[in-house]
Amino acid sequence: MEAPVLPPSQAEDIAKNTIKPIAAKDIDATFKSDSIDLITNPLGSRILAFSDEWFAAASNLTTPTPPVHKPGVFTYAGAWYDGWETRRHNTEPFDWVVIRLGVASGRVKGVEIDTAFFNGNQAPEVAVQGCFVSSSREEELKDKDFGEWETILPKQECGPSQRHGWLLPEVTKRPYTHVRLQMFPDGGIARFRLYGYAVPVLPQNIDTVFDLAATVNGGVAVACSDQHFGTKDNLLLPGRGEDMGDGWETKRSRGDHVDWVIVRLGVPGTIDHLVVDTAHFRGNFPQKVQVLAAAPVREKIPAHDDQSAWTEILKPEKLGPDKEHRFEKDVLAGVGEQVFGYVKMVIIPDGGVKRLRIFGRRGQTGQYMGRAGRV
């Protein structure tokens, strides 16, 4: 795997522009509406190396759930923290951790650092670097003096027990396979989120059927009616998860009601079959599901209530508990050879769904739907 021939380091571009700090209350709206966390643990990201993790493990950084606090709980090393914490008095300029992205590669839109519950021992400053290397070279990344790191986020100040967000001047031109989080000089960080767009490795044969909506293939859940108990982003993750906590679940409704979620496919394509999985949802699964699709319009997301934009491809069908429901082409309507770029799943009246799979063939153009550009 070789990096595309693109302009050199982002560092000079970043220096000429302004990093925009994002208030904690605006982080989700800024990043979670059209991008994904490229290093979240459920995607298969990996901690490759770190300088130190004496007080708390680096692997906590990529946990998808918010940090928790256990005051008064101590381990052999010291107070228990849900995050990454290193020793005091670092003799080097910074502590560091190297992470393999959970997707083939990705372009970065912004960064979140959460220092929740680290107060007096939080990281004073952080920076983020990236590189594009093949898996065969990963051993090289364990050397703190590895020379191919490029600046993604220059050094930024951090405060105690709070979420910090930074929006880059533009999405990085270069995709990255690995990132290095730097902490100056030492301390603790609860969570690290790297928001951006997957650059998928898609099948070259246009007749190959694959999941057009999967996060690893560039799919993004871009809007929903409600996500009270479980986030919409979980719908497109690999595997079937571990419990109800890693699915999409809405709050209970009363009266005539439906909930919905809109997914931007990673690549426009024709639809072959659908899978709606209610794994672990046994007393709170939706009674029925309906699926609609829309054309691959780049300018804006089709409004959920714009009837002219959506074509019904699956009429309301009954669902059951804790089960993969597969809907073949013979029960789908209006699919044929039409190329779609968005899918809307409607659950009736409410409840939880673990995964949504949209299997199909990529369109003749093979154009990637993400805002990071064309593959």
Offer a quick outline of the entry:
This is Allantoicase. The protein has 375 residues and is mainly beta.
Structure report:
Strands 13, 14, 16, 17, 18, 19, 20 and 22 form an 8-stranded antiparallel sheet that branches. The protein contains 2 helices and 22 strands. The chain has helices at 11-16, 27-31; strands spanning 20-22, 36-37, 46-50, 84-85, 95-100, 106-114, 125-131, 150-157, 163-167, 178-184, 188-189, 191-198, 210-211, 220-224, 248-249, 259-277, 288-294, 311-318, 324-327, 340-348, 352-353, 355-362. The chain is mostly beta strands.
Indicate the percent of residues in helices: under 10%
Name the quaternary structure. Answer: single chain
- What is the helix/strand order? HEHEEEEEEEEEEEEEEEEEEEEE
Q: Per the principal axes of the C-alpha atoms, what is the gross shape?
A: globular
N-C termini distance: 14 Å
* Count of individual helical segments: 2
Low-confidence stretches are 1-8
Q: How much strand content do the residues show?
A: 25-35%
Give the mean pLDDT: 93
Main beta-sheet annotation: 8 strands, antiparallel
| Broad structural category | mainly beta
Give me the count of strands. Answer: 22
Q: How large, in whole angstroms, is the Cα Rg?
A: 21 Å
Organism: Vermiconidia calcicola
Protein name: Allantoicase
